[in-house]
Sequence to fold (339 residues):
Amino acid sequence: MKITKRTFLTLLVSASVMLPIINNTVQAAEKHVAITQIVEHPALDACRKGVKDELADAGFVEGKNLKWSFESAQGAPATAAQIAKKFAGENPDVVVGIATPSAQALASSARGIQQVFSAVTDPVGAKLIKSMDKANGGNITGVSDLSPIDSHMALVKTIVPTAKKLGVIFNPGEANSATLVGLVKKYAPAHGMEVIEAGSPKSSDVLAAARSLVGKVDVIYVPTDNTVVSAFEAVIKVATEAKIPVISADTDSVKRGAIAAQGFNYYDLGRQTGKMVVAILNGKKAGDIQPEGVSKTELYVNPESAKKMGITLSDELIKSAKEVVKTMTKAEREAAEAK
Fold:
């Protein structure tokens, strides 16, 4: 077919009119999820990966129809506040706050945006929501990682039956940690243990906090405290030298040298969080989604670390574990995670 000059000009004009419409359609189809966490360590990193993988499985893929933004506060609440303000200015479809300080910062600065928290120990105490038992309205929902502290105290006594004094290292400035230590102090006496606290406001303080417990405690318990977990190797160094058993609430810490942990799989927690994000991207309001907790726990044990700390784990306990692990270096853990 012969195309005249007039026909060509008509097609050119039509294309110039249609191109912005096509571009707007593409842009409208892209969703933006912005995610921030208070600090980077294996548990929280696994949670973030779980969120992203859940989005991908639901068809929201970075580089295709999803804009994915991530910022770490590097353990600094002030930085978490700055990140929250930055995200508020970008106005994404959903913001996700991993761990209490980051979730609180988003709640304060990004009030007009749909929000999902994850790995928050006490979202009611942190004033993120009013109830875990129902949808709260507003623009916030999420998943709590409140640890089963009574079960953890029972595990401590199973591993160290003679324990009388329990050392707890935590950041008193973290709302989630204050809640957890309060529960430890509630349940530990019923298991015949007195609680000795060691505060660590910064990750650089963890080594000194661990050393302060030497000669004072029979066992050290590390809750899901982001400050302490980010510098967990410092606890293991002191405990191994002093032959003090270390038991953690974070299962990833067992690979880093803890004797045992009864906790959640944070990747699965991230997938659980991701389902909420997907629901919001598909049109649901965060305030119409009931917050959730995690009920399933898994036991991880490290017999190698136990021996270094002067403890022999029973065959019965080892058989009951989901996984028996060996201590891994940071490079080994990163290589395993990359596979």
